[in-house]
Amino acid sequence: MKPEDGGQTATVKLKSDSVVIDNRWIVPYSPLLLKMFDAHINAECCNSIKSIKYILKYVHKGSDQGVFAAHSSNNCIDEISEYQAGRYISSNEAAWRIFGFPNHERYPTVIHLDMHLENGQRIYFSEDNLQCRLANPPNTTLTGFFELCKNDNFAKTLLYCNVPKFYTWDKSKKVFNRRKQGAIVEGHDDIRSGDALGRVYTVQSRNTDCYYLRLLLHKIKGPTSFKDLRTVNGIEYETYREACLALGLLENDNQWNEALKEAVYSDSPSKIRTLFALILSFCEPSSPKALWENNKDCMSEDILNKLRADNRHFVLNYTDSIYNEALIKIEDKVLQMIGKSLSEVGMLSPSRQHAHNMSREILREMSYDSDLLLNFVTQREPLLNTDQQAIYRKVLRLYRKSEGGVIFIDAPGGTGKTFLINVLLAKIRGERNIALAVATSGIAATLMIGGRTAHSMLQIPIDLPHNEMPVCNIKKGSAKAYVLQEAKVLFWDEISMMHKHGLEAVNRTLQDLRGNKDLMGGLIVVLAGDFQQTLPVIPRGTMADEIKACLKSSYLWKQISAEGWMSDYVATQSGPTEAVQWLQTDRKALHAHIIEATILTGPFEGEHVLIPRIPLIPTDLPFSFQRLQFPLRLAFAITINKAQGQSLRVTGLDLTDECFSHGQLYVGMSRAKDTSTLFIIADEQKETKNIVYSQVLK
């Protein structure tokens, strides 16, 4: 790490000169290996897929060579002779070969499994036995697998690639036999498992039929024939591709069509429109317009029914105006989810004769009930303590003068930061001005009135650690840009969890959108957080990495005014958003393409929701892949990092595995409002680690 980033330095004297040495001069090493082998050893951590290339490069590069010769330019080059003449064998290698030690080995055994279409086995024939060979093609490991599944119940539980672990292939008889050696499989005393791995030969995607057959073999257990592989839910399909589509193994809009059809049987048109908006926002259908045409009636049914109820003497059917109204409702939901219009996601744009496109984002921020908000302020203002009142007055003073500036509220968890922010939000919005509320974590966002995550509202890039100069994905002239231009104050909770590049990206974006080179483009920004709590998460990062990513390491930190309090204050009459809120769901029905669920707690408690599969792409791996799956995770508990921002009536803390990062123990224990409601489980130990980075707290 560079000295300017906190790395250590040392001064070494060389004759009359002095040289400053930092970490860039030091080769990675292990003191234990140096002492053990008494030699210089370069220690490197091989922790990615690139390690395979690194290792194989040394295995296959060949022996050391040294050769020197003078010859005429007319002589031809004999590379074989040059290799033999120049090959150098050291004494160690010579002794190794003389004693006959192995040069290489392979473990575990890899069994190659045949891959072919029906009656597509490779046969060898002559003119005399052609007809006989065609009539009786030889068995392969694939056809042998089918025969095995017909006669062996245990084999019916296996995929094709897993068979070699439990069975051996008899090349002479062309059949699979159970292994006679190995560990006994639990629950099957007559089955033994070995270490062999099965590998099905690769098939190019251009060989379509065989490619889809191979895909089915990796998904269907215990097939007894090629026909059995093409049969899904009792329906035999003509091609393997159709079978793959029926199983949902291939990308196409059939997945979303089926999801919408399943929703029709149990849900209202309003819920179906929300589901459709979700699909448009996150699932990237290949033909959104066709998807709309196939399902537009079920998404417009409530609009037609309302018209029929108001005009009982007329026979009314679906019209373009009804569909247009449904599209407007869908577009409003898409705007709320990702801030894009229908035309930006490949759909038809609805006609809005009485509303300007630019006003929709503004409308969401201006639709609060002023009387209700001002009444909220009247009730909550007297509950603010002295420290909170000082910050309250300072923010309002900046707001009245429109001077701009950034304030950081630094206070421990559970002392009323969110309560103060909600009072300020109500005050500013009650005066018909725009105040934006965002938080780094989703939980914290739900605790603020009208709160959203910072990544969603401000379009902050995801891969912040690897982006030195990020900017937010907000276009000039867009509705979201207009909101940020008109906003008076931006409140940002749990800022201590955000990577410093996130705040720097917002600063650049606001300066560009607002045409102002002042800090945050002249917008008043109120940050709230606690550096005693968890810091930005850096995958496989060190303490130095986390400190470097912290907001205090940003060049913006010196321009931020820090305010704080230490009083252990929690409002006794907290508002509705200050209540304990968990994002939990209880499933009502599990369909093939959607999950019907009910939100158990939080501001949307009792609301019925439809959850489709969503393409998810991990960003923390050295290679890229996409997986289509339900965005759900079983959670009988939540991680300490996820709990940050909550105040819980009863808290159970599992410390059987100790905390491993700054602030985790503090966050876990401070979720409880009272020590009598805090319960800790540990492995009969009286002590646990409390990791604190003192550099962050200075």
From TrEMBL:
Entry's EC annotation: 5.6.2.3
Keyword set, alphabetical order: ATP-binding, DNA damage, DNA recombination, DNA repair, Helicase, Hydrolase, Nucleotide-binding
Annotated family: Belongs to the helicase family.
An annotated GO BP: DNA repair
Organism annotation: Araneus ventricosus
SUPFAM superfamilies: P-loop containing nucleoside triphosphate hydrolases
Pfam hit, one: PIF1
Cofactor(s) needed for function: Mg(2+)
DNA helicase Pif1-like DEAD-box helicase domain residues: 384-560
Gene Ontology MF, one: ATP hydrolysis activity
Reactions this protein catalyses: ATP + H2O = ADP + phosphate + H(+)
UniProt-recorded name of the protein: ATP-dependent DNA helicase
